[in-house]
Amino acid sequence: MVWRGDVGIITTRIDSDGDENLIELWGRSRENESVLLRIHGMQPWFEVCPPGRWNGDFSSLEGRLHQLENHEEVTHVTGPVEKWTDLGYKPVWKAYVSKPFVVPGLRKELSGRWYILSGDIPFANRFFLDGDFAIHVSVTAKETYSENGIDIVADITLDDVEQCQGFPVPWKILSFDLETSIAESTILCAAVVIEDRGTGIRTKHTFSGDEAGIMADLTNLVLDSNPDIITGYNIDNFDLTRLNDRMAHLSKRGDWQGKAELFGWGRVNRDEKEYRRRRDGLIPKRGATRAWNISGRCVMDCWWQARQVLRPERETLSFVSKLLFPDDDERHKMDIDASKMDEEWANRPDEVLEYCLRDAELPLDIMAEIQAVRRCEAIASVSGVSLDTVANGNTSQRIDALVIKAADRSNIGVPLTGSADAKEGQITGGYVHDVEAGLHPWVAILDFKSMYPSIMIGNNICYTTRVDQGSTDQPLEDEELFVSPTGAKFRHPSQRQGLIPLLLEDLMAQRDANKAALAKAKDPVSKSFYDQMQYAVKILMNSFYGVFASGFYRFTHRDLGSSITAWARHNIKKIIQRLEDEGHGVVYSDTDSIFVSVPLVEGENQVEKMIEFGHETAQRFSEDSAILEFEKGLSAFFSHGAKKRYIGQVVWPNQELMIRGYETQRTDSFAYLTTGMKRLFEHILAGEDEETIAYSLEMVRAAKAGEIGVRDLILSKSCKGRWDKRKAKWIFTEDYANPDSMAQVRVAKQILAKGLPFTPGMKVSYVVENATEKPMRVRAWYEEEADSYQYDVQFYAERLATALGRVTEAFGWNAKELLSGNRQTSLFSF
DNA sequence: AAGTCTACCTAG
DNA sequence: TTAGCTAGGTAGACTT
User: Does the CB of A569 sit below 7 A from strand C?
Assistant: First the structure.
């Protein structure tokens, strides 16, 4: 029976064990079926061309070509086709090979005789590249069957797949949590909550009893419920790692069946062959990266998603929950002491199970609230990759998906990653204008629309358009070139349209289309959809510059990044100069923005004057590919004189307090300072100078008097470190020159001493007990011990005075004076 | 007390 | 901090 369906692709792998090389794609259909597509008929290949400049002498290649054709791993060779490379046009042969995994060896073997192209592209990516597909596809299958709990398994070819409009995939998400013994590191109990986004139903499960039984039941639930996405809080570093360790502990070496029973979460046959796969197999694996790999499923750690979206001051599950659901006490009441888990489990197992279940469900609430999956889906849709590649991949992979496709279509050779010359040191970045200290009334903020992408488009900046002395491909004699302030030259689009500028133009058009659709959308579902899409396009466009300015990306050259920023500096400095020549004060500028004083008018209509001035000025200085926009209007702007630190009272297009850089924005500050400083800023922008000083003095006084609740004094900082497998201990010396002089490392060690989990890169929280000791004495923060903290009153008072004093100095009070509570009369004060 | 160095986090 | 980039401010430990 013919099956037709729209499918969202979770992840891919290759199956090259048989005669054929299959690409396997796991997904979920619009109709809520689990799907496995097995793509037949594709063959792995790479390309070769003569190294160096091509001299047209085909006869010199005959021997090499013959050797290539007769290589035992090479099935056949086609070509040559003329392709563009960074040394000019060259003849390119395509070598088809028996198996994808022979390519790395061949690459090495041939490297002296040939220049290799397209030789490091994972074979499974060919599905997206050759088919021009993204995460959502439409499939027609003549027949299908069920296998391994998957509803629809279809053997098809690329021709049976078509592009598909985005649709909300009814993902099935499994969230889990383990409670573990501190003494033994065994698993005491587990909980799972499964969300079916098709039906909207959640089911809850708890597991206790002997450890092997818990793991086996958990595995059975994974297989029976067959989820697409596995989540939980910090599962990458904790829960999955622990399951893996316990599997190793509880099963004998080589007992693949025993291991599969305990942790065989993969969506594949339960046999030894699948067990033996190094990745994408029966048993979840973590390679060199942080990301876990489970065949057929996508691991999406709620902690990682939440930190990226929310940037929380602290990163515990309970903190993030309170941040998102402040009114919901049930969700975050704390009644189990995790540092005494063994006792808790012995004394009141029911409560521990309930606690465990709650911590399994919260990640689902958090993921839904921050729309983590939809966000990934939108980026996957725009860049043309699977869900897993967005959730667990890197920026280069997203850019690759777009650029390689475009290169293949235009006969541009695809160089290997790392083939470019290394960058010599850093390139120069954006220009930051000195900020004039003090309060400035009426400031218009103008900024360039998508500055770096526009510069790339406007000057046709691309790997494929850069003029290189060493290339056989030189511009026409009368060709108009774009010459960057660094001297780098780029071809004219009439002669060669760059791939990147073309892609960026397309993305800009997509963004405009999505924005237009968003404006027209009536129901919340489509509104959210178009908003996600336009945002995904924006994210993707902005990541182009970074990738092309990096030292290792395949399509880069050091002149690209430095030309982009050089043009940016040139453009913005020119406009600042012209504004100043006209008598307009430029208060500040950073990279793509200009803060300009609005001429004052008599009477009441200063806001209207600012709007008119903002729009008029922006338009006047706009050029074709450097469009300046009036972004915000401020009634007041203040900075104490440091770059990247300022505040503003926005009055157009809406009313808001805008703060950049200051302690209020920093997650390594403490609540008493951030909330107080925000209040201070409101006084400053309202022109309430006396209140500004009085408020600052009161804050410092209260701190000195020890009147602040310790919860408002918790500091938080990320801590690195790594687990040394051989020594079986945590080491910090790799990441820190002097680890024990760093407060966060000392805190991490306290956490570890308590037997609590520590995740490298995660923030740790602490209170300063005594800063007169060097290094200062700090105590890790545990909510359960909240009542027992002593803090260093003088330390907090000084830190407050320092931060507030920088600001109040503009009003005549410095840090020292805030601390003492009175102003020293200087010799010159009268 | 001033300067150097490492580290963190932010703006864009 | 999962091969995007640079500019910049600040804290704290330590040295001179």
Answer: no
Whether nucleic acid strand C comes within 7 Å of the CB of A642, the answer is yes
Give A208-212 contacts, CB < 8 A, sequence gap 24+.
A208/A349, A208/A353, A211/A186, A211/A187, A211/A246, A211/A250, A212/A250, A212/A262
Measured CA to CA, the distance from residue A544 to residue A29 in angstroms comes to: 32
Q: Which nucleotide is nearest to A301 (CA to C1')?
A: C2
The CATH 1.10.132.60 domain(s) of chain A lie at 671-820
Which pLDDT belongs to residue A825?
A: 59
- Nearest nucleotide to A426 (CA to C1') is C6
Percent of chain A residues topping a pLDDT of 90: 93
Provide the pLDDT for residue A600: 93
Rounded Cα–Cα distance for residues A489 and A467 (Å): 5
Between residue 779 and residue 818 of chain A, the positions with Cβ below 7 Å from nucleic chain C are: 799, 802-803, 806
Q: What pLDDT was estimated at residue A602?
A: 83
CA of A150 to C1' of C2 (A): 29
Cβ < 7 Å from nucleic strand B: A 311, 429-430, 590-593, 644, 659-661, 665-668, 716-720, 735-738, 742, 744, 763
Kindly report which amino acid residue has its CA closest to the C1' atom of nucleotide B10: A661
Integer Cα distance of A800 and A679 in angstroms: 14
Q: What fold characterizes domain A671-820?
A: Topoisomerase I; Chain A, domain 4 (1.10.132)
Which CA distances in Å does A51 have to A70, A115, A805? 20, 5, 63
CATH 3.30.420.10 corresponds to the domain A172-370: yes
Q: How confident is the model at residue A827 (pLDDT cuts 50, 70, 90)?
A: very low
Chain B bases having any atom below 7 Å from a protein CB: 5-12
CATH class of the domain whose range is A420-498+551-661: alpha beta
For A270-325, the pLDDT digits (tens) are 999 999 998 899 999 997 777 999 999 999 999 999 999 999 999 999 999 999 99
Residue A377 CA to C4 C1' — how many Å? 20
- Predicted TM-score of the model (pTM): 0.96
Per-residue CB contacts under 7 A with strand C, chain A residues 294-313: 301, 304
Subset of residues 480-499 in chain A with CB less than 7 angstroms from any atom in strand C: none
CA–C1' gap, A802 and B7, in angstroms: 19
Range(s) for CATH 3.90.1600.10 in chain A?
420-498+551-661
pLDDT tens-digit map of A25-39:
999 999 999 999 999
**Per-residue pLDDT tens for A550-586?**
999 999 999 999 999 999 999 999 999 999 999 999 9
Say which CATH architecture domain A3-42+130-163 belongs to.
Beta Barrel (2.40)
How far apart CA A752 and CA A37 sit, in angstroms, is 45
Alpha-carbon torsion, ordered A266, A270, A273, A274, to 10 deg = 0
Which residues make Cβ contacts (< 8 Å) with residue A330, sequence separation at least 6? none
